[in-house]
Amino acid sequence: MRNVVDGAGQNLRFNTTETPKPLVIVTPMSESEVQRVILCAKKTGMHIRIRSAGHDYEGLSYVSEVPFVIVDLINLRTINVNVNDKSAWVEAGSTIGELYYKIAEKSKTLGFTAGVCPTVGVGGHFSGGGYGVMLRKYGLAADNIVDARLVDANGRIHDRVSMGEDLFWAIRGGGGNSFGLVLAWKIKLVDVPEKVTVFKLKKTLEQNATKLVHKWQYVAPRFHEDLFIRILINRVNSSEEGDDNKLTIVASFISIFLGGIDQLLPIMQDNFPELGLRREDCIEMSWIESILYFAGFPRGESLDVLLSRVQRSKHHFKSKSDYVQQPISEGGLEGIWRLFFEDEAVEAQLEMNPYGGKMDEIEESSIPFPHRAGNLYKIEYLVCWDEEGEEVAERHINWIRRLYFYMTPFVSKFPRAAYINYRDLDIGMNNIKGYTSYVQAKVWGIKYFKTNFDRLIHVKTKVDPSNFFRNEQSIPSLRKNKGE
Question: Where does the FAD-binding PCMH-type domain start and stop, copy by copy (predicted)?
Fold first, then answer.
């Protein structure tokens, strides 16, 4: 069984002969070249899309319905790690894997709280919040940003002081490329132990997966903040699990504990004995090795794989997200399993990531990302397919939309919240040509940002009144311009 979430990178849905192509792709070598590109595009009325690594679920960083230029930041990837003050400057074209590699070069006891897929670019990841397996201990990547360098719509370069606290607030979770082009981030590194413990336990329906997932909802958000256990739900042929040849659902419990096996086992025995974790299920390793473990690399793989920008697999896919605030009943979970037995779910996956810990302590208004206390866990739904053609795509997208509709009673309401780094144009869109009203943008905006959306609108209207930086789900300016 392959981990289709970690393989979900550049979306092959947007790699067809019909996909709109850019007029030109620009790969700036320096900050001054970025400035010139911005000024040239503004002068000529050219629309730009900004790409850091291409992990963009709806293709908004490299596709547009109006004539456009791609500004690809692949050459802006310098990373300077300062062990003494536990910080790093990371240029926006760097990948998460490159960042982790550079940190590990300098220290065995420093890390960073970001995602598990190493080919994701920090530019988009950080600007949308950026969560990973240490979020219960340290929050999001965006919670740990202390400075930034940004080019505005007039070609001026700002740091935190010159851009002001409103704009600095907005770019840490307010979504990529709404306010300017971020050149680099300064991040606060976090402490990690020399050894962490990981495990992966798979449970099928025949092994009480439903009851275990049900119980997980109560305990995972309340575990000690050093413990993170996510669940991946897939459909498998049970012969793969050593059983008779029939279809079943498997729940994979995948964990990292910021400590040793001897500390972990009593916590699991006291809080989640039903899972049946044994010493032999656990592996102690360094934090940087755990990055490879969660990314799906085999044990003993060279750390050099973190420097590769090539995604190991690409698919056509569609993703959606939800937040769960009350545990879903066993009957509710069984309804999910029924949908996973349908034909379109061969390569579908549901991922459940627990909150609690540090995420409960950070105020909703601290940065634009608002999904904090009150959320037990976040869900990502993903469906992949390999065949070409619109009919195939429509069948799979309809399947995930039916799953999303089924989940309505079990997830957050007023608004039904979503995570911006799992872009989903189903929940609402701007007008890519002409003016987008506050009322129109609010349809999707409050789902990503809740009440923080109004402040983001205010910042956008102030710093980019002409709406130069825009896409189908960028924060719009409320100031009307000529021709709109």
Answer: 18-192
